[in-house]
Each structure stands twice: as C-alpha cells, then as structure tokens.
Amino acid sequence: MTGDDYQAGQVLLIDKPLTWTSFQAVNKLRWEIRQAFNIKKIKVGHAGTLDPLATGLLVICTGKMTKQIDSFQGQIKEYTGTIVLGSTTPSYDLETEINETFETTHITAQLIHDTTQRFIGEIDQFPPIFSALKKEGKRLYEYARAGETVDIKSRKITIEQFEITKIDGLNIDFRAVCSKGTYIRSLANDFGKALNSGGHLSALRRTKIGDFDVKDGLSIEDFIQKLPKKD
User: Fold this and answer.
1) For the chain, percent of residues with pLDDT exceeding 90
2) CB pairs under 8 A, 24+ apart, for 112-115?
3) How confident is the model at residue 134 (pLDDT cuts 50, 70, 90)?
4) Which of 42, 88, 162, 220 sits a CA distance of 20 to 30 A from 200?
5) Is the pLDDT score of 149 beyond 80?
6) What is the Rg, in whole angstroms, of the alpha carbon atoms belonging to the chain?
C-alpha cells in the first residue's frame, strides 16, 4: 500500500502485546506510517481500548476510516482469559496486589459451570474503580490511586455467551461474548462473589470484534516489517 492508501483509510488488525497501552500502539503505528511514506500528518485511532495487561485484537483505523471507529466500537466482542478464585484485588486484575482471600473448599466444578448462567443476558455491571471512565472530569483510576472513594453507577451490559473452558485448581479459563461497555475484570470479580468467594482476572485476550478476528491480525513488529523501508 501507499501513503495515499493510508490517508484514504485503512482498517488494521493488530495483535496487541502484553504491557502496551492501546494509546502506545496507536502512536507507534502512526509514527511508523509517517516515517515510511514521509507523511507529515495522518489520523490514526483504535476502536476499543485494551488494558495494558490484556493482549489481543486492536482494530486500528487510519485516515478517513477513523470516521467508522464508533460503529466498530459498538460491535460484539469476544474474550478469553483466566479467573483466579479465592482472592480479590482492588483493580480486579494483576495491576494491584491481592487485598483479600476467601474460602474455596465449597466450590465444585458443577457449581462453577452452573454459576455462569447467572451472567448470561442483560445484567447490571459496576465498572472497576481502576478504569479510565471519567467522573467530574477525572479518570476513575485517579481517584483510586489517590485512595479516594467515589460513587460509581452500574451500567446495563449484555453477555451473550459465558463458558468455562478449563478448570485447573483455582484457575478458571473462560470464553465470553459480550456487548460494548462490558468490563471482563468486573465479570471476574462478580463471578467470585456469586460463588460466595472471591475472584480476580489473571489473563485476558480479546479474540474478536464483530467479524474481525485476531487470527487475521499482525503483531506490531510484523506490521512494521511490511512497511517500505526508507533508503
């Protein structure tokens, strides 16, 4: 492709690596495209944030295709990951340390599978306090890191599928298909509560957004390798 092609608009499927923010991925690709084609300015944006501790599909739009970002963001998403039962963290994942432990001897494989049914359909979900949502002009994680409490309202979300794919002790592998606005970290935390225990997310991977599949995505390194090299 040429620089004009990127300006006209492209949809790039990127497999985001662990620890990268979505913002870093967008900035890196924008810089590499500008350098490869000697472009002074080009619009680049992503259709749905992935946390730094998550990997998987980022749909990145360039040029005029950035106008389609909202429509891509609204599409159904699929995730796979692992929930650790018996303990919680303030962030609901491994960004923060375990703050509480719970009994797990009553939890059976049957109970785990049966409990997934409570989360299928339209449900009310509270976003994590460690999230980028804004309240009164500040990100929620800013309140959390300052040790401040803040009232968070629940939101209606839809989980179309939630299945357990593997049980290895307290590590529960799952697959979830859900609507825009769903926090899988909150699902992990709520799932632990529903089991009369605790739970937090230890791994997360986004595999699909609408018809886009991470199997068709490129790593950032592979994408850069496909760009023309400057003499």
Assistant:
1) 84
2) 112/164, 112/167, 112/172, 112/195, 113/164, 115/191, 115/194, 115/195
3) low
4) 220
5) no
6) 19
